[in-house]
Amino acid sequence: MTRHLLDIDDLSASELAEILDLAADEHPPRLLAGRGVALIFERPSARTRSSSEMAVVHLGGHPVYIQGDEVGIDTRESAEDVARTLSQYHCAIGARARHHRVLERMAAVSGAPVLNLLSERAHPLQAIADLLTLRDHWGGALPGHTVAWVGDGNNVARSLALACALAGVEMAVASPPGYRLDATTLDAVGALGGRLQLAASPAEAVAGADAVCTDVWVSMGQEAEAAQRLDAFQGYQVDARLMAGAAPGACFLHCLPAHRGQEVAAEVIDGPASLVWAQAANRLRAMRGVLLWLFG
Ligand code: CP
Ligand code: NVA
Question: Domain of 87?
Answer without folding.
Answer: 31-122
